[in-house]
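hey so i finally got around to running the thing on that chain from the lab meeting. sorry it took forever, my laptop kept dying and i had to restart like 3 times. anyway pasting the input first so we r on the same page abt which one it is
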Amino acid sequence: MKNTRGLVMMGVALLMAIAAVIVAARWINERAGSASGKVAVAQADIALGARLTPDMVRMVDWPAAAMPPGAVTDAKSLDTRVARTTILRGEPVMETKLAPPGTQGGLSAVVAPGKRAMTVRVNDVVGVAGFAMPGNFVDVLVNTQGEKQRGSNADKDPSISKIVLERILVLAIAQEASRDDNKPKVVNAVTLELSPEQTETLDLARSVGTLSLVLRNQVDPATATTEGATKSSMLGQAPEAPLLAAVPVPKTVAVVRRPTLSQPRLAEKVEVIKGLDRNTQQF
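ok and heres what got predicted. didnt touch it at all, straight out
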């Protein structure tokens, strides 16, 4: 009898524990459901400049407290949108990674507002041996002939190398704009993102001399102030002073003025005696 009563008590306790677990699980699920939302994430890697479609993303639950700013919560709103950066698989799709609505696909979607994309021809040396890749910043160096100084007798203008553009973003190398591949690639063209004023400078620089790209630190915003390198500064020599043209020296004529007599000169008288004759002559 006592054993039966104990078993009944254990059964009742077990049933109450199971009921408590069920109630707690439902409460946790309800709280979790009310504190989460739907976020669009990429089903596969989405390349830079690609046009999105709803089937390229999937909606997943995301905690409301950790919701990424600007996350897309409606897959239909992504139709025909263009990716400005590469979106990896499982990464949330955010407005900051998309071009404005109506933008066409391709490299034009990557160019920032107010900027221009300009391509320059490079080789394995000018292109920093292929280490200048999309997303990097470079300086543009031009080697040209300096302005000829007035009065200089040099046959040729002095050569000079000067940094003309600094911290220029590389948009693409050749026909590739992907920023995921970190392997150096030797290409024959590099596309840079420039302001309208910088495009004019670059166009003039490539027409008057040869260009070189200088790879710089990604997080270094400092501006370099240089005067350019010449042959004299490279060899540690003082620059030659320009020869002055010969200037004719005007002849001077000395004018001597004789003093004028204020009084008339008195005549002199000489007495000449010849024998017994005596004469007086006046000069």
